[in-house]
Amino acid sequence: MAFKKKAAEYIKDNWRTVLFKSLRLLGLIIFSQILVLLLTSTGVFSEYLSGLNINIPTLQNTFNYALLVIAYVPILLVYKIRYQMGWNIKWWMYAFIAFADVEGNYLVVLAYRYTTITSIMLLNCFTIPCVMVLSRIFLKRRYNWTHVVGAIICLIGLATLIINDVLNPSKLDVNQLIGDVCCLIGAVLYAISNVSQEFVIKRQEQSSSGAVVGSDPETSEFVDDVEVEAGMALDEAQPKFSWFVEFYHIVEYLSMIGLFGGVINTIQLFALEFTQIREVKWGAGVAGYLIGFGVCLFLFYSLVPFLIHSSSATFMNLSFLSSGAWALLASIFIFKKEVGYLFYIAFAVILVGLITYNVIDEEEYTKKVTQQEVQKREEQISVDESSIPINERVVE
């Protein structure tokens, strides 16, 4: 009763703040579900193409990279020419990120040849523990025991899903496992791309503080190694045009991924799929599925950075959990496929794991731990200095 009374008093005294935060959260939830529907739609189009025995993953992704170049490179040129904006990171880093992105997309789309949309959507949850490891190494993130337990539970759910594929009597084929492996490797590559994307998008905070958001002051060399070649214009614009600079980070990232991804994707297209493309029986349906896939993926790429910037990667991962549910509905009602009972168990286990993982916000926890460590170091320095005799202290 005491808790309810305090909560009621807080809401009464701060109803404007509560209302604003509630509306903002509702807006983020709606926005995230739009992204989930776009993500699921790419899976539906891939499933349709797979049903026609058409598997040309590189060509499918070509439309996305082409649209990124057409939409964002002109805006990037305006930033560069008119406002003299500097580069966030070196070009070869963008090339590496684009390579991981292209191959991640290729493997996940390739997986539709062997497995189902429901399995693929759940297996993509493997991205979360991979992001944890990469964020700890490169972004110096700190994790509570709930994050570790949640990731382990997710892995148990993924193992259950693979067991379901092995035990399903209608799929006693190694192809199912091939699809699972393709999807898992693709999830690792997605993790590399996601961590890199978070770093670039939040570059404004990083460059202004000299360290990655939530990083340890002693380990900020990672950011120092990433040279900002012409960052003065960027820093000068921040106080008055922060939104302008924030949008620049997103535009630069999407432009470079489109350019480098397009080049890598085109080379791979001629190397791997030239023969398959010539053998495709083209028609309005095939063209429509390819265009639909490309447009949905392009919109997904364009909107994800805004969700990351407005909330956090943690919120995004929790929101994308519902993609498994949407994929399940698509599998049952659109493709009329039966789902094994272990799938529901795997889905429930992964749900529990992700909820456990998101009990404590990882960014807030990282900042809290970092502040505590800085405070301890300052206290230790004070103790060490006080132990030095006055006549031996160095006067600066």
From TrEMBL:
Location(s) in or outside the cell: Membrane
Key words of the record: Membrane, Transmembrane, Transmembrane helix, Transport
GO CC annotation: membrane
Residue intervals passing through the bilayer: 62-79, 91-114, 120-138, 145-163, 175-193, 250-270, 282-308, 315-335, 341-360
Gene Ontology MF annotations: transmembrane transporter activity
Pfam families registered for this protein in UniProt: SLC35F (PF06027)
Main localization (coarse): membrane
InterPro entries: EmrE-like, SLC35_F1/F2/F6, SLC35F_Transporter
Membrane topology classification: Multi-pass membrane protein
Membership in a protein family: Belongs to the SLC35F solute transporter family.
Name this polypeptide is given: Solute carrier family 35 member
